[in-house]
Structures are given as C-alpha cells and as structure tokens.
Amino acid sequence: MTKSKKKKRQDDFQKVKLKVGKTKPKADNATNINFRTKGIHLTEQLKKDGSAPTTHRKLNIKDLLSQLHHYSGTVKQGALVGLRELLTLHPSELDQHLSSLLSEVAAVFTDKDPNVRMSATRLLRFIAQSVPAERTCPFFPLLSAHLSCAMTHIETGIQEDALKVLDVLLDHYPALLAARPALLLTNFLELISHKSTGGGARKGQEGKGRSWALSVNPNRNVTGQQWRLTVLLRLGRFLQAVVEERRAEEGDVCVSGDLFGGLNGEEGANTPLELNWEELTYGKGSFQVFEHSGANPTPHSTFKLRPESQPGTGVSEGLSSVEAVRGFASTLVPLLLDVWVEASVSDRSKTDSAHLLTPDAMALMYQVLSVLQLLRKLTPQREHQDALDAWFRSEYLGEFKQQFMKNFPYGNLDTPKQRKRKDAKSKQTPTVPGQVVEPLALNILLCQVMVSMVILNQREGPAQEPDADWLMPLRGFVQETLSSGAKLSHRHLHTLLETVWRMVITQRSRAVTEDLLQAVYVQYQQMNLNLQTRTLLLSFFSRLYLQEHNHIHIARSKVLSRWLAALPIQLSQLGHRNPALSGWLLLSIQAAASRGNKDLLKSLHTHACRLYDPQEGSVVLLPAESQQRLVQLLYFLPVIPQGLLANLSRCCTAGRFSASLAASLIRIIHLRSSLSGWSVGSPDTAVCDVDYISFLFSILTGFSSDELSTLQEAGDESVLPPSPLSPLSLYPTPLEQFTHHWDVVEEVCHCLETLGSRSQCFDVLQNGICKNLTGLAVVPDSMAAGLLRAVARLLDQSVLPSEALLRFLSHCCLSLLSLVLTLQHTASETNHKREAVWGACVAALGSVPRLLRMVLQLLRVGDLCEEELPQLAQILSLLLQHTTLRNHMLANASLLQHIIQDLTRYCQGEAREQWLTDLLYCYSVTMATHRGNLGLRDIY
Amino acid sequence: MSAPMEIIVCADSAGQLWNCAVIELHSGTNLLSYRGGNSSPRALTVLNGEYILGAQLGKNFINVWEIQRKDQLQQKIVCPGVVTCLTSSPNGLYLVAGIAEAIYLWEVSTGNLLAILSRHYQDLTCLRFTDDSSHFISGGKDNLALVWSLASVVQLDSTNAPEPRHVLSRHSLPITDIHCGLMGPQARVATASLDQTVKLWELSSGEMLLSVLFDVGIMSVTLDPCEYYLFCGGSDGGIFQVSLCSQSLSRDKTFQSDNEGNQVFKGHRNLVTCLSVSMDGTLLLSGSHDETIRLWDIQSKQSIRSINQKGPVTNAFIIPAPANMFLPDSRPGIPLPRFSRHLNPSEQGEGVETGGVCVRLAPHTQVRPKETYLEKADKLYSLMSAVTDKSVFGSGENTKVRVSELEEEVRTLKKVNKDLYDFSAQLLTKPN
C-alpha cells in the first residue's frame, strides 16, 4: 500500500529527463504553429442599407459625418475623402445634407492633423464649386466663425491652412465674405501683428495708431517676409472683394477709380436707385432712403429692415462709414509702412544700392501698395472719397514721402541694370522658386507700384508748390514710360492713364497738361494696338474732352484738339472692320460736333465725302445704330457741299440703310436748309436751296443718270419690252428696292409740300422731269410710280402742267397700268407693290384730268394685236370701276365711246368674250348713273 | 364765382397785322392785339400779368407792352445780341433771355443784369421756369438741357461761376422744346428733340424717367396739368399723345398709336411748333408752320377750331387772363426800369443813381433748411422708439415729479369714475 502511495506522489512532479542529443519532447501546452493565416479586409460594410446612397465602402453620409468626430486622424481623413466621393457620385446628397455637411467640415478646419485640414479644404472647394452663393448664404455665419477661429488659432500650421480656406471662399463666395468684413479684418491684422498690451503710459507716448505692432513668429517654416506676403495677398483679395461688392451694391458702373470703364459711363454716372424688396430682405441690413428721390441721401435715415449683425469686435464696424474705414486704415497703414521699411532694410543688406530690390521684397512692397490703394476705394460713397484722401494726405503724406519716394528715381532710371542683376542673381541662387518674378513683369510691377502711389498722394485739390519736389520725378517717369513707345499691357496702361488723369485734373497748368497728354497721344498713335487698349485710350481722351468745361487748361489743349481733328479720318479708315471701335469714335465725334468744336468740324467737313460714300463709306458699312449717329452728325456740319449731297442722295436710294433712316436723313437736310423755317431769323443754313431741291429730286428719281443711261442700253433681257399698251419699256426694280424707294418718296413728297409756294415747287419739279427724264425709253417702275405720286401730291389747281411733262407722265401711267395687270397674276408678295403702283396711277389721273385724257388718247385700238385687246379692256374696266375717277371718265365720254366702239368692231368676228362683256357692262353702268344724274338734274 | 377766364396768346413770324394777338379760348373771338414788330419762337412772355414782352425776330431788342395798352410800345429793351428765347419767372421777379450761347438773367425790380451763364456750346432754343420760380431749364442746339437753380445763379459770389444743378445730356440732336410740369422743384420735365425722341426727366434728381421714340423729329412738347398725357408736336404736322399711365416698366419705348391713350391728332400740314393745354386739361392748343392755330378736344381728338394766321406760328399758349388786360385805365403795379446791358452796373457808375440799396441775402440764409419729410419721420421714429428708451420723461427728479403728477391724475380720474358709477347706480336702482 505504502509502495503504491509513494508511486503516486512521484507522479505529480515527474522529472523530465532531457538528454543531450535527443530532441526535446514537446511540451503539453505547446501551440501547433503549423497553420497558415490569411487576412480578411472588410473594406466595406456587409450590411446593405438601401435607403441612402453610399460610398464604395458602403458608408452613407451619416456614418461619414459621425466618423469626423473620430479621434484618429486617418479615420477623419478617410471620412473626408469618402464624403467627396459620395458627393461626386450623388450630387443630390449635397442638397439634402448641406447644413450638417458644412458645419461638420468647418469644424475640422482647426484639426491638428495637417492632412485632415488639407482634405477638408479640398472638400470645401468641391462643395463651393457646386453650391451657388445664395444657397450657402444661411450657413455662412457658421463658416466664417470657424474660419476666424482657424485664422486666430495658436498653431501656425492651422493659421496657414486657414488662409487656404479663405482662398476657396474668396474664389467662390466673394460677396458673402465681403458682406461681413469686420471680424475678418481684425483677424488679418492679428496674423501679422499683435495688439501691444503694453501699459497706458507707453500707449500715450506712441500716439493713437500704434496700438498694434508687427510681430514675427520664429516657429513658422517660412520667413517673416514671406508670411506677410501671403497674408497681404489675401488681404488684398479680400479688400478687392469688398470694393467690388460695394460697387455692385451701388449699381454704379463708373466709380472714379474706374475712370475709363466705358464711354457710356456718363449715363451710368447717376444711375437711379431701384429697390427690390425681395432682395433687400435677404440682403444688407440697411439701405439709403432718398428724399423725394433726390440725389443726396438723407444722413438721418434710420430705417432698417433687419438688426445689424453684431458689430465687429475689432477695429471697424463693417466699414460702412468713412470713420470706420478711417479707423481701420489708421491701424493698418502704420503696419504696412513697417512691413515696407523692414523689407527695404533687409534688402539693403543684400544689395549694394538702395535702389535695387530682391523679388521677394518687390512682391511684398507691391502688395503693401495695392492694399493701400484698395483702402482708398473702400469708402461707402464716392463723395466721401475725397474726404478720405484728404485725411490720408494729412496723416501719412510725410511718411509716404519719406519711405516710398526716397529711392524713387531709380525705379525708372536703373531698371535695366537692375534687371541684369536680377538675372544674374537668379541664375546663381535659384533658391526661392515660388517667388521669382519674371524680370520684365517685375519692371512693370515697379512702375505700377510707383504710379499707384502717385494717385494716392495726389488726390487732394490743386497741387501746391510743396508737392513739386516729389511730383516732378513722378511726372517725369510717367511721361517717359508713356512716350517711350513701348507697348504696355492693358492693366498697366489703365493705371498710368488714371495717374495722368489725376495729374491733369489737379494740376491746372497748361504746360504740364500738354506734356502729359502728348505722352498719352504717343501711345494712342501706336499701330496695332488691341481693341481693349485702343478703347481705353480713346475713352480717356473722350472723357477728358467731356470734362473740359470745368477746366480751361484742358479746353485749350492743343493735343486734345489734334486728337479730335484726327477722329473723322480714323473713322473713315476703320471702315467696317471694327464696329465697336467705330461706335466709340462716333460718340466722341458727336459730342464734339454738338459743341461746335471748330477743329473737328473742319476735319469732318474735309472727310465727309469719304464717310458718306454710298459704296464704301462708314455710313453704309457700320451697324444701324452707328449709321443713325452718322446721319445725326450731318446736322452739325456747317456747310453741306454739293458733292456730299450727291453722295447722300445715293445713300438714300441705294437701300444700304433702312427707309426710316433715309427718311430721317432727308428730314435733317430739310432742317438745315433755309426752306424749313425752323430756325426763323438765324441765317445759319448749311444747304443752299438749289442744292437742296436737286438733292430731293435725285432721291425722287431713285436712279443716277449713269444708271439710267446703262439701263437704256441694257437690252431686252432685263426690261419689259415696249408695246402699244406700254409705250415705255419698264425696268422692274426688285421688290425690296421698290418698297424702300416708295417709303423714301413719301418723305420727299412731304418735304416738297412744305417748301412754301406750291406752284413754284411744281414748276421746279416739272423742269427737272422735262430736262432729265422725258427722253428716256427705259424707265424703272419705282421711278415712274414715285414721279406720278409726287406730281399728284404737289399739283395745285392753279398750275397748268406743260405738254411735254404730261406726255411723259401719260406714257409712264399707261405702262404702269399694264404692269398692274401683269402683277395681278403673280404671287401675293407683290401685292403691296401692285397697290402702290395702282394708287399712284389713280391719284395722278384723278388730280390731273388732262393726264387721263392723254392716256385715253394713247389707247388706239387699231394698233393693238389681238392678244392685247383683253388687256386694254381690263385697264378700261378698272378705270371705270374706280369711283373717284368716274367723273373724269365721264368728261371724256366721247373718247371712251370711240374706243369701245373700236373694240367691239375688232372683236365682231368672234364670239363675244367675257372681258368684252365685262367692259361693256361697266361702261353701261357708268353711263347709266351719269344719265340718271343728268336726268335728275333735268327734273329739278 | 365764375370760372377763370382763359385766353390764347399767339404770335406769328409775319406780324403783318399785329405782333401778338389775344384770343378767347372758348369762343375764339379776337380780344386784343398788340402791334409793332414780330416775335421770335419761344420768346413771348407775360411778365407778372402786367407786361407783355416779345423778342424781336432777328433783331437784338425786346418789345415791351403794358398789358392794357395794346397799340403802344412801352419800351424796347436793347440786348447785346439777337434774342433766341425769352421767359419770365412766374412770380414776376426775374427775366431770362437766351442770347446766342449765353443765358442772361435780369432782376425785374431794378433792371440789373444779375448773371450771364455761358455753359451752352451752341445757340439756345428754349427756356422754361418751374412754377415756383425756383429753377429754370435751358435747352440748346448743343443737345444739352441744363437745370439751373435760381438761388445759386443769383448769388453774389463771383469767384466761381454758377454750375447747373443737372445736365440732361441724353439727346443726340438739338433740343427743340421743353415743358416743365407743376410742383416746383419736384416737377417732371419733358424735353423734345430733333433726334425723334421726347424724354421725361425728374427735376429733383436729374434722372431720365422715360424716353419715347417717334418716327419724326419732335418740335414741341407739353404735358396736361395732371400729367396723364404727353403731347408731342411732330415735324410732319402730327401731334402725338402718349399715355403716361401705361403699365410697362421699360424706360425706352417706341411710339405706336393704339387705343389706350397713345393717339395721333392729324390736321396740321407742317411743323407743329407750339403746344399748350388748358387749365382743365380738356383743350389742346397747337400752332404750326402751316400758318394755323388749332384747338383740339383732347377727349375726342377732334379739331374744334382752326384760326388762320398770316405766317408760321412762333408762339401760342394758353394762360388765365391777367386782371389788368381788359381795364384800359389800369396801371401796372411797378414801372418797368431800364434793363442794363452790363453785368456790374456799379462799375459803369449807374448803380449810384438809383439811390436804392440792393439787399441780397447770402445763399445759406436764403435757403432755409426746411425740415424734410424724412427728418420729420425720423423725429416720429425717435418718439416712438423713445418709449422703450424712456427718454421721453427726461431723467432724475423731473421724472419723479412727472410720475407723481400722473399718479395724482389717475387718482382723480378714479374718483370721478367712482362718483359717476355711484350716481348712475343710484339712479338706476331707484324704483321710480
């Protein structure tokens, strides 16, 4: 028993004997590692939720948004990427979840992980691209709150990325951003400076504007200057957005900053206020109320549709008043000056001379100046700008002069040298790749910087003598740049012209004005300018000219009058190549002509024949609106010579411009003749009476003598051959031309009617027709109809028309009557023509009884062949049916009877045809009513 | 009380029988005629109901008649040049004439030449005053119409030349006629031009309200007193009536005759140079170069009378008859002084003779800053919002006093009320 007990005890802790050379026995608890594993990646959820669209990971928008609260950066980034994917695939999701989306995305602007921030920015850009501004509007306070949170974040990385977010917003929602400028502006300031929290004593010493001081953060991975540059770049863009938004709000096309925006800016200078209540409720807090829509808003107005958004905590309250802008400027300008000084000082250490700058410094300075420039434009109303400028001048002129102007002269003198240096330098040290600016661009940039400073400094009033010291180099530089003949880009030219404008307006000295204008004129005379530049220069001059009444030195400028005198020839040379530019030219010409500018009128007079050439003159080549202007220009010509009148009459008849324009041309010539009698008493008539009447006569005929003579020889193919029923061979004018001529003749008739004595007028017309037209064998139908109409309208009972005239007219009339018959069978589009011709014939026959008799006499039945007999009968029955002619027909009853007898005799052989029956019926009806009348008369 | 008598004053350029004639509006009888010379277009005016002034056609003087002495010229005002247009202010204090490019402004009481305004570049064609004489509008052949404030023109400050208040520069050909509506500086102004448009402007802001394009040049324009219609006399003899009540909002429109007020009065055969509407807006007077004056019934658009003249009509307008006109024994209230031809009479040594002192107030005292509607509204607004601010009651003891006063009043009122109640209750509860 005991033995067995012992055995058992030993069993518990059995010693394992390990022997050398033998394999170690496996432990009982050893893991068998003879298996292989494979990973299973669950990239997508297994559950399928059919209700909402998902990403390829089967995550719907709610999951993704909740993932944004995850602690891990990768998850957050993944969620952002997923959101982007989801939104691209299903844009409809964007509309539904915009509010939560924006709030969640904005929340990660301040994330610690740079990758997350980058993805957030990218997502924001994507959203901004696809959502219009008005839909983002309600969420914008949230966005901007997060943005300013990021901008003021203590970590520099977040600050830097906040600027990228700002970029996105500036790109897509500039107006929304600009609507609440207060907070952002403070943030900008805080990015490059800090509010000095020093004691009050120090503050007192420093003065009012020095509570902010420039700061440098050594932790940044860019230099202080580069950081400032990036911030200033954004500030500039932001201010630009504010300025633009304000301009759009004013509905003001032509702010003084944008002097040459358009020539029609004159109209836009005082655009009416149009209130749209719907917009106002969603738009700004307040709006100006105008006293009985007077030009000046009442300053007392307190009406607001909405409480103002909480006032900015910082420097300004929305920049809506001059004081606010001034306050902001007083904080910002010293900072900018500091930036400038630091840049120039740090630069001086690198280069030997103070004139030469590195590209970084140059870019920084440029930003400084453009921000200054924008500050000026921030004033709510234009009239306040002068006040602001005056304030700028009084506050900062000294400092500006000292800092900016100290090294100025080198800017233009040494630039070539500087460029070389720059080239060499950039080859040696290509260390700053992002900021290297092309040397030429750099040059021009420098010009612009200096020039924009000029405006700023010079804004106030007439230049006093003390300014001369720093104005002289500026002026010299501007002149040199302009007159060097180099081509300048549109932007630079624009800035330069603004400078010149300011100088000319403010300096009030003739010599200076002449020099500057001469320099601009050199630019203007350059060949091959593009349209934009050309328009810019043109509008510069024309606006200057329109301003002249205020400034006597401008009015007397020789350059300006030379420019004016050159306009007509430019217009004629331009031809039809550029209607827009011609339009600009015409505007200036018209303005000058209406002011009776002698130089212009003289030059216009010499080039009038070219301008109004019926073949290739501007008047026929340009679009309708310019044509009208050209026609109106005629009014101002002091003398309209014969040659010009001939051209004009050809213009009117050729149909290159509309009949209504031709009519207004005739009217204008009419007004300028002594016969119109509008300006009673004043003897300034441009057209002598003989010329005027011959002008009217040539329009009445509608064809020049050359054209008529070619028509005579044209042969048979184009004209209708003469026949006994149509003694003249008619040239059928195209329908369009006929209508045109018909309308113009109406106006001519009206002018002739109002000439005064009708009988004399008719005499003149009669002589004209007899001398020029009676010999014609081929007559255009439009001319014949026009003549008949004019004669019918002008003839007085007292006048006895001459035999020759009547013979010619009777031929015309008969030919036209047979034309009417042929037109009856053609398409309906000639209806108008037929009616016009028939009306003219009837009117002439009705007003001149002798004409009717002669026409009847012309109808010799014996000469006609058989086919023409029905035609004759038709003519007669038409005439008989016409009520107004009936009495005249009766007066020629015997003649009529004779014709009808002849007709019946000639047709006796055959069966009586329908036409003859009709005619006889008409005849008998007419005669019967006549006899009835006679009978009645006999009774009484 | 009988209705005011309205008369037609008209003149033609021939002037054979008379310079200007006065015709009864409703009967067409010729009442008076003033002899001597003839008048230029838009240069006949009645000054203060006491004188008739007409600029001689093509000469450099103005004929003046006393309104009751028809056959005798009172005087001739000799001017520096040919007068092209002339008008007098409705209050009879100023006379304005256009002489070549310049506007001459005289003070009637002294005859002094107060200002020469040369802002126009070409000859003037028309001058019009507002009905309260505060502004005048000048139109010229340089396509411009200028609005002048009389107060700013008259000021003695010679250092800066007076500037027009507004420049209306949208016409592209000479301006032929101007009409100024009622309501003083808030009036609407219609300008007609040879560029075939008539434009309606607001005087206070200088904004264009409407532009109507026609087929012909427009030589004359007028509005009826209610400004329902615009009447435009065309150069072809048509008179176009444009309804201003249409619903279309477009600022530029083309005239088309339709049945809704846009109509044409046909009858004249030549330029319609003068238009005028009677006080009640039922009759339209038109004068034309076809040597007739026509009277139209506006409602039915018919010509109800045609009066033949001896030459092209230069002036024709309807005015209420001045009191003195038909009393041969009456005298004008003020004798007309000699009108000076030079700007500063004192320099010529003439100013001393008169012995009077010319008192002219400085511009800022002349124009009293009157309380505008908006300021009134502001005041009202502040009063309304003051309830919340509690600023109405002032502050401190003032408030206490006021509060106690009010409490006192409430107490009395309560007492009165109770008495009244008791009394009436007593009365009602009484059995008989």
Notes on the structure:
Chain A has 940 residues and is mainly alpha-helical. Helix content of chain A is 65%, strand content 1%. In chain A, strands 1-2 form a two-stranded antiparallel sheet. With 432 residues, chain B is mainly beta. Chain B has five helices and 29 strands. Chain B has a five-stranded mixed beta sheet with strand order 16-17-18-19-23, with no helix packed on it. A four-stranded antiparallel beta sheet of chain B has the order 3-2-1-29, with no helix packed on it. The model of chain B is unreliable at 347-355 (pLDDT under 50). Chain B: One of its GO terms (cellular component) is nucleolus.
How would you describe the shape of chain B?
elongated
> What is the percentage of strand-forming residues of chain B?
35-45%
Q: What topology, given as strand order, has the largest sheet of chain B?
A: 16-17-18-19-23
What coarse outline of chain A follows from CA principal-axis ratios? elongated
User: What class, by secondary structure content of chain B?
Assistant: mainly beta
C-alpha termini separation of chain B: 60 Å
Mean pLDDT value of chain A: 74
InterPro entries (chain B): Quinoprotein_ADH-like_sf, WD40/YVTN_repeat-like_dom_sf, WD40_PAC1, WD40_repeat_CS, WD40_rpt, WDR18/Ipi3/RID3, WDR18_C
Keywords (chain B): Cytoplasm, Developmental protein, Nucleus, Repeat, WD repeat
Protein name (chain B): WD repeat-containing protein 18
Family (chain B): Belongs to the WD repeat IPI3/WDR18 family.
Topology:
The complex is a heterodimer of chains A (940) and B (432).
Chain A: H1 2-12, H2 61-67, H3 73-89, H4 91-107, H5 114-130, H6 133-136, H7 140-151, H8 156-172, H9 174-179, H10 181-192, E1 193-195, H11 200-206, E2 212-214, H12 224-250, H13 265-268, H14 277-282, H15 322-350, H16 359-377, H17 383-404, H18 410-413, H19 415-428, H20 439-458, H21 468-483, H22 490-507, H23 510-524, H24 531-546, H25 552-555, H26 558-574, H27 579-594, H28 598-611, H29 618-621, H30 624-633, H31 642-654, H32 659-672, H33 689-701, H34 705-712, E3 729-731, H35 735-753, H36 758-772, E4 778-780, H37 781-794, H38 803-824, H39 831-847, H40 849-858, H41 868-881, H42 883-891, H43 893-906, H44 914-939
Parallel strand pairs in A: 3-4
Antiparallel strand pairs in A: 1-2
Chain B: E1 6-12, E2 20-24, E3 30-34, E4 39-47, E5 51-56, E6 61-66, E7 73-78, E8 83-88, E9 94-99, E10 102-107, E11 113-117, E12 124-129, E13 135-140, E14 145-149, H1 150-154, E15 166-168, E16 175-180, E17 188-193, E18 197-202, E19 208-213, E20 218-223, E21 229-234, E22 239-243, E23 252-254, E24 263-265, E25 272-277, E26 283-288, E27 292-297, E28 302-308, E29 313-320, H2 351-354, H3 363-366, H4 373-389, H5 397-429
Parallel strand pairs in B: 19-23
Antiparallel strand pairs in B: 1-2, 1-29, 2-3, 4-5, 5-6, 6-7, 8-9, 9-10, 10-11, 12-13, 13-14, 14-15, 16-17, 17-18, 18-19, 20-21, 21-22, 22-24, 25-26, 26-27, 27-28
